[in-house]
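I am writing to request your help with a piece of structural work I have in hand. What I wish to show you is a protein chain and, alongside it, a tokenised description of its three-dimensional fold. Could you please explain, in whatever detail you think fit, how the structure tokens follow from the sequence? You will find the record immediately after this paragraph.
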Amino acid sequence: MAQPTGKKDYKRHMPLNRLRNIGIIAHIDAGKTTTSERILYYTGKSYKIGEVHEGAAVMDWMAQEQERGITIVSAATTTFWTPQVVPSQALFPEEHRFNIIDTPGHVDFTAEVERSLRVLDGGVTVLDAEEGVQSQSETVWRQADKYKVPRICFVNKMDKIGADFFATVKDVEDKLGVRTAILTLPIGKENTFKGVVLLLEKKTVIYSEEELGAKYEVKDEIPEDLKAQFEEERAKLIEKICENDENLLERYLAGEEISVKELKQGLRKAVLSYDLVPIICGSSLKNKSVQILLDAVVDYLPSPLDLPPVKGTDPNDETKEIVREPKTDGPLTMLAFKIQTDPHVGRLSYVRIYSGVLRSGSYIYNVNKDSKERVGRLLLMHANNREEITEAYAGEIVAIIGLKETITGDTLCEDGDKIILEKISFAEPVISLAIEPKTKSDQEKMGIALKKLSEEDPTFKISSNEETGQTVISGMGELHLEILVDRMKREFNVEANTGKPQVAYKETIKIEATAEGKYIRQSGGRGQYGHCLLRVTPKKRGEGYEFKNEVKGGAIPREYIAPIEKGVKEAMENGVLAGYQLVDMEVTVYDGTYHEVDSSEMAFKIAGSMALQAAVRKAEMTLLEPIMKLEVSVPDEFMGDVIGDLSAKRAQILGTNSRGNTRIITSFVPLAEMSSYATILRSMTQGRGNFVLLPSHYDEVPKNIIEQIVSERGKNTKTE
């Protein structure tokens, strides 16, 4: 068995067909980072296995990650692998380069998963063999569906009490709605799990208990007690593979023997077309099946050449589609997917190169900012360690030092051959809190720190409450904001006081209404005159805001339309009912008047703001609140109490199901009702209950609660 080589050389220009850009994605605590650490060890990237529970994992390099044992930011690394378990039957026996991103499993850091999946070609979904498909596993799976990322499932923790491989496979089929292709059968389970049977290769891999299973032996004999199951599962696997390939199907129906390599080619084709998902079982902590997983990544997950070329549009003509082939001799095309502030080298911009060659010292064009930027240095990242390189090629993921204006989602290309790629969309924040520096002298430092953190994290928003003068930060959950405040202290030396977390309500309207805004000021000399009529119309939940101009006959000159919209947008930021942002409405300016001398952009901006506020007051305003999807896992005997408590929290119970002696209750519940739920659930279930909370959608707040919220916010306005 090949042991880690400890090589550190960066092999330049690996052919595109021998490149695998993969992400490790999963629910929190399924074992993603442990799996990543084993991959680094076996591919020779690290000499020693870093353990998450000891705070020594290479990929969890932030202090907060090591203390909490969770992944907070996605960590990228580059390593190399040559198939080794049954090399004679590998589809591609050569050495391959892996660009790996280990993503967080906690819902508060969902932006890290979203942006990683946008630039990856394949994914490894890690599942807990006892827990099966959990709610965050479903969420990351749907995110991967959105970007059409082919996946392999690794059923981890087969050595754990309660591990059930086939129940987890059924979970994958039922909850994720996919067809599975089981590639390995477990030999034993829980504390007797000692190896796997490889179905296609007809081999048995037995792990020694020395070195925690790091050594293994490949045998030709199938264990006697597994022979019947092996034959049954292998026949099912071959049938599934052949169903996806007409040529193989004909031969299969004719009773012809099909070689292992032909079956692997058929399975690869089915994986790339999202028809089958290979499933492998093992235990990352006990070093079992990690090499089998690496071999499967080479065999079944795509290279950049296996996927459709990236598409974009012409910045000067949005209707014109441009295609970029993954070629090194093509025009340079990249997407910036992550910004990171590094204490040693400053601002890092992570990019995926889709076409062309990127060289350090060169100039590139940022299409979104319409500006040129200089590539200072190019780095190959290994978590928070860096290896400087002089050039990078199509298909690679690298970091750039020196880009000052680039933010997440920007397209970078050559000035003479422009293209704009689709931006990355992120979820809206659901929770906010007021923040202030502990000392007056820290005010400016806090502003700089918050700006840098918001550049890194697109789901972290900063705003000011005009009435109180407070700075308000918003994010995806309490843990998200807690980590960011902690980072301000550690990385920027800014001590801050924070208020109680507040739910990020939004305001909207229920009916159409019109109103006018008139701003007239006469003082000696030139006055101010702005006058417009607006119509507000409700839109469906989540459809956002749209501005339309229906002014006819020059009633308002064209140059004053944009200032009206600016005034409307500013008024929508701090709503009318309780000061929350206004959403889901169409605003139309349809008439108005102007003055030849006194009209100005400022006057029309103020008029737009006044008209908007007057119109929404007539349009049956209401509040919207974030609704979360809650999944609670509790022992049978506590189910009644938990459901009763949820009903009191305005929860809508969606259903319950069983897994062993555990009941899983799924519901929609308002975020406002979930304060301190961890403590409540613990006391209700003698510490045996667990829960996961995921953002779902916004819905209307009941009228009696709206009145409470409005009075608490110190507003006199009541719902109409």
Notes: Residues 1-11, 50-73, 715-720 have pLDDT under 50 and may be disordered.
